[in-house]
Write a structure and sequence with these properties.
The protein is of the alpha/beta class. It has two domains: about 1-15 and about 55-180, no CATH class; about 185-359, no CATH class. About 35% of the residues lie in helices and about 10% in strands. The chain has helices spanning about 1-35, 55-65, 100-105, 110-125, 180-195, 235-245, 270-275, 280-285, 300-305, 345-359; strands at about 95, 135-140, 155, 160, 175, 210-215, 250-255, 285-290, 310-315, 320, 335. The strands form four sheets. It has a five-stranded parallel beta sheet with strand order 7-6-8-9-11. Helix 1 (about 1-35) crosses helix 2 (about 55-65), helix 1 crosses helix 4 (about 110-125) and helix 1 (about 1-35) packs parallel to helix 5. The radius of gyration is 21 Å and the shape is globular.
Length: about 350
C-alpha cells in the first residue's frame, strides 16, 4: 500500500506540471506587457546559457525530493508518526482520505480552502476518483513540513538545498512538495498584472533609488528555523526592522506593514511593533529595489516580486516551495545579500553605482 502511495504521488506531480505551466504563461504575459519598461542591459551574463527553466521531468524530481524513485516496505514506514484525526489539525503528518477531505471543504473556512481544496485539485489531476473514501494520502497542513525519511508525506514547503542542520552541518531530508495555499502565494501576481495592464506601474527611470521592505513579524515562536545554522534570534524579519527601521533612509526603507506586537520567544519591542507603515503594492512599485525576507517558511511575496521591473534583494532561501526558490540564481534572478542582512546598505549602493556607470 505504501509503495502505491509513493508511486501515486509521483504520477500526481507529473499531471500537476500542466497546471503550473498555466501560471508560467501568466508570468510571461506580465513580462511581455512591461518589456519596454524593464531595465535593459547588453551583458551576456543574462543569457540563457546561464539558466534554463527545468523540464517537467526535472521539476518532478525536484518536487518529489528525496522520495524520487524511493520505495519502502511496510515494516520501514514510521506508522507511529502518522495521525488519523476527525478534525483539522496543523503541523503534523495526517493520514487523510479523499472522502473526508471533500467533506471538510466548506464555504467560509480558511484552512480547508487554503490547503485541502488545493490538495484535492492535485489528487483530481492524477485521474483518481475523489468521491471514493478509500483513496488516502499523508499531508502536513501549515507552515511546517515532515523531516521523517520513513514517511512519504506531502507539504507546502521544505528546507532548501542551502539549509544546513545546526547540529550536524548536513542538509535536511527533502520531503514531497505539493502546490498548497496557492491563493495567498499567487493571487498577488494577478494584482500586479492588473496594475501593469492599467498603466499604474512606475517607469524604471522614475523610481526612487531606494530599497523597500514591508511585511509582518513572522518567523518567530512555533516555527522551526531555529534548527538552521546561523539562525538569527527572533527571526530575520524582526532583526531587519531592529537594524534598519528609520536608519539609512536615503538607501533603505524597512518597516512592518501593520502595527503589531510580538511576544513569542521573548521577542518584544513596542517601539517598532506599534508603528503603522502600511504601503500598498502600487506604492512599493515606486522603488527600484525591493527586499524579500522569509517568514515562518518562504517569503510569500517573492512570486509577484519576481515579475517586477524592480530588482529583488534577498539572502539565499532557506525554505523552498512549489515556486522552486532555491533554484533561483544569485545576481541573475536576484541580488544576493548576507544571511544576516549585514551588507544590505553596501549592496544597494553598489548596485546603484553599477547601474549609473553602465548607462
Amino acid at each position: 500500500m505504501y509503495l502505491f502511495w509513493v508511486v501515486s504521488l509521483l504520477f500526481i506531480l507529473i499531471k500537476q506540471m500542466f497546471e503550473f505551466d498555466k501560471f508560467l504563461k501568466g508570468i510571461t504575459l506580465v513580462q511581455e506587457l512591461q518589456d519596454d519598461d524593464l531595465p535593459q542591459t547588453n551583458s551576456t551574463y543574462y543569457g540563457e546559457e546561464l539558466f534554463s527553466f527545468p523540464t517537467r521531468e526535472a521539476r518532478v524530481r525536484y518536487y518529489m525530493g528525496d522520495w524520487y524513485n524511493k520505495t519502502l516496505n511496510s515494516r520501514e514506514i514510521d506508522c507511529v508518526a502518522i495521525k488519523k484525526v476527525d478534525t483539522l489539525i496543523s503541523d503534523v503528518n495526517v493520514l487523510m482520505s479523499t472522502g473526508w477531505v471533500r467533506r471538510q471543504i466548506k464555504p467560509g473556512l480558511w484552512l480547508p480552502h487554503a490547503y485541502l481544496k488545493y490538495a484535492m485539485e492535485v489528487v483530481r489531476g492524477s485521474g483518481e476518483d475523489i468521491e471514493r473514501d478509500f483513496n488516502r494520502f499523508i499531508m502536513v497542513i501549515g507552515d511546517k513540513h515532515c523531516r521523517n525519511n520513513r514517511l512519504p508525506s506531502a507539504s507546502k514547503t521544505r528546507y532548501s538545498r542551502f539549509a544546513l542542520d545546526k547540529d550536524t552541518g548536513t542538509p535536511f531530508f527533502r520531503p514531497i512538495i505539493w502546490p498548497l495555499n496557492l491563493g495567498r502565494h499567487y493571487e498577488p501576481v494577478d494584482e500586479y498584472k492588473a496594475l501593469v495592464q492599467s498603466g499604474s506601474v512606475t517607469k524604471w527611470e522614475d523610481k526612487k533609488p531606494i530599497l523597500i521592505w514591508r511585511g509582518g513579524a513572522t518567523g518567530v515562536g512555533y516555527h522551526e528555523k531555529h534548527l538552521l545554522q546561523n539562525h538569527t534570534h527572533c527571526g530575520l524579519r524582526i532583526h531587519a526592522v531592529r537594524k534598519y527601521f528609520r536608519a539609512d533612509q536615503d538607501v533603505v526603507d524597512v518597516a512592518y506593514q501593520h502595527p503589531m506586537k510580538v511576544t513569542r520567544g521573548g521577542c518584544v519591542d513596542t517601539n517598532y511593533h506599534f508603528r503603522d507603515t502600511h504601503t500598498t503594492m502600487e506604492e512599493q512599485l515606486k522603488f527600484k529595489y525591493i527586499l524579500s525576507i522569509e517568514g515562518n517558511d518562504v517569503a510569500s511575496g517573492l512570486k509577484w516580486q519576481m515579475a517586477l521591473n524592480s530588482f529583488v534583494f534577498m539572502p539565499r532561501p532557506m525554505v523552498a516551495s512549489f515556486f522552486m526558490e532555491d533554484l533561483l540564481v544569485p545576481f541573475l534572478h536576484y541580488v544576493l545579500v548576507n544571511n544576516d542582512l549585514s551588507n544590505l546598505v553596501e549592496m544597494v549602493e553598489m548596485v546603484e553605482w553599477a547601474w549609473e556607470v553602465s548607462t
